[in-house]
Amino acid sequence: xxxxxxxxxxxxxxxxxxxxxxxxxxxxxxxxxxxxxxxxxxxxxxxxxxxxxxxxxxxxxxxxxxxxxxxxxxxxxxxxxxxxxxxxxxxxxxxxxxxxxxxxxxxxxxxxxxxxxxxxxxxxxxxxxxxxxxxxxxxxxxxxxxxxxxxxxxxxxxxxxxxxxxxxxxxxxxxxxxxxxxxxxxxxxxxxxxxxxxxxxxxxxxxxxxxxxxxxxxxxxxxxxxxxxxxxxxxxxxxxxxxxxxxxxxxxxxxxxxxxxxxxxxxxxxxxxxxxxxxxxxxxxxxxxxxxxxxxxxxxxxxxxxxxxxxxxxxxxxxxxxxxxxxxxxxxxxxxxxxxxxxxx
Amino acid sequence: xxxxxxxxxxxxxxxxxxxxxxxxxxxxxxxxxxxxxxxxxxxxxxxxxxxxxxxxxxxxxxxxxxxxxxxxxxxxxxxxxxxxxxxxxxxxxxxxxxxxxxxxxxxxxxxxxxxxxxxxxxxxxxxxxxxxxxxxxxxxxxxxxxxxxxxxxxxxxxxxxxxxxxx
Lengths: 345, 167
Fold this sequence. Notes:
heterodimer, A: two-stranded antiparallel ribbon, 3% strand, globular, B: three-stranded antiparallel sheet, 5 strands
C-alpha cells in the first residue's frame, strides 16, 4: 500500500462525499421545484436566479434555529440518532462503481472506492442499518408519535427487505457474482439487466421506495397521523440531518438501481466514444451518463411522490407480504428454470 | 321507492377486477396526468414584480380626491367614519383660513384624516356614504409592513397628488 494509493482513494472519497452532499442539497430544491411544476406553480424562485441558492438559505436557517433537546429524552441517543442516519446513508456510496477505470497521467485509476466481492450484500447491510438511525431517534425522543413512527419504519423496512432480497436473487442467478463492478461490466453497451429482469426491477424499485421511506410508502412521516413522524421532537440541524439522510438514501438507491438494472455507466455506442475521446475522457463521459440515469431516477422518485397518495398501513403490509414476496419468488423460479433450460441446450 | 328528483344514482360496490388490483395501470395513468401538468402554464403571478389585473370594481387602498382646481374635496363631515362598520376612520375637522382657499374646496376641512388599514375591511361603505365624492377605494393593494403603527395611514399617504404634480 503506497502513498499514491492512499491519496488517490482519499481524493475519490472526498469527491464522492462532496457530490452526494451537493446532490442531496439540490434534491431538496428539485423536490420543491418538481412539486411546484407538477401542480402548475413556480416553486422557490426568490433566492438567487430561479431560486438556485434556496438550499443554502435553508441550510443557514437550519443552523441558526434554536436547538431543543426534550428534557425527558435520552440525550445521548437523541444526538446519536440523526448522526447514524446520515452516516449510514453516506457509506452506501463506497461500493458503487461510478465509471470505468480512468487513465490519469499514465496511471489507471478505478472510479470506485472499494471493489469488494460482496458489494450487493454490503449495500443491503448498509441499507438495513439505516433504519437504526430512525429507530434510535424515534425511541430516544420519548414521544408516542415518534415511537409509533419508528416502529412503522422498522417493520416496513423488514417487510420490504425480504422482497428486495428475493428480487435481487433472481438477478444474481444471471450475473453469478455479487461484485457491483463485475455486474456493471456484464451490462456492456445496451445489454442492460432490466431487459432480462423487468419484473425483478419492478419489485426492486417498489421496495426501494419503501426502504427510503418515500411516498407512497412514507408512513413513518405520515403527518396526518403522526405529526412529524420520528423527527417530531427534532429541531435545528438534527432535523436537517434526518431530512438530508432521506435525500442521500434516495440518491444511493437511485445509483444502485441504475447500477444493477440500467447498466451503470454503460450506454449504447460506448465503444465508439471510447476510441473518440481516449482513455481519460471516455470514462468521465460514462460517469456523466451514470449521473444522468441517477438524476432521472431521483426525478422519478419525486414524480411518484407528487402523484400517488399514501398507502394505509395494512395496505402496505398486504402489498409487501402478499403481493411482492410471492411475485419475487415466482420470478426466481422462472429465472432459474429458464437458465437451466438454456444451459441444457 | 321512485326518487322524486330522478337524480339518485345507486352506486354498486363491485370487487376490484384483476387490472384494478394490480395498481400499476392506474398508477401509470396518474403519472401521465401529473407529467402533463409539467408542460402547462403556471398559474403563479410573481407578485411584487408582476401584478394581477384587477376587475374594474376592485376595492384597494383609499384615496382622498381633489376637485378640478386641485382643492381637497373632503369637508370632514364624518359620514364615512360613521358608516364604517370596522371603525377604521377617524378625523379632526378644522376651519379654512382665507389664505387657504386654494387648498380646500369648502369652509371646513379635515386637518387630520386617518384610516387604520388593519381594521379596514374594504367594504366600500365610506365611498358610498361620502356626499362630496371625496373618498374612493381605487388604489393598489395595501402593502405589508412590520409595525402596527405603520398601518395607520394619514393624509400624507391618502390624499391624491396635486394637479401639477400629476402632470
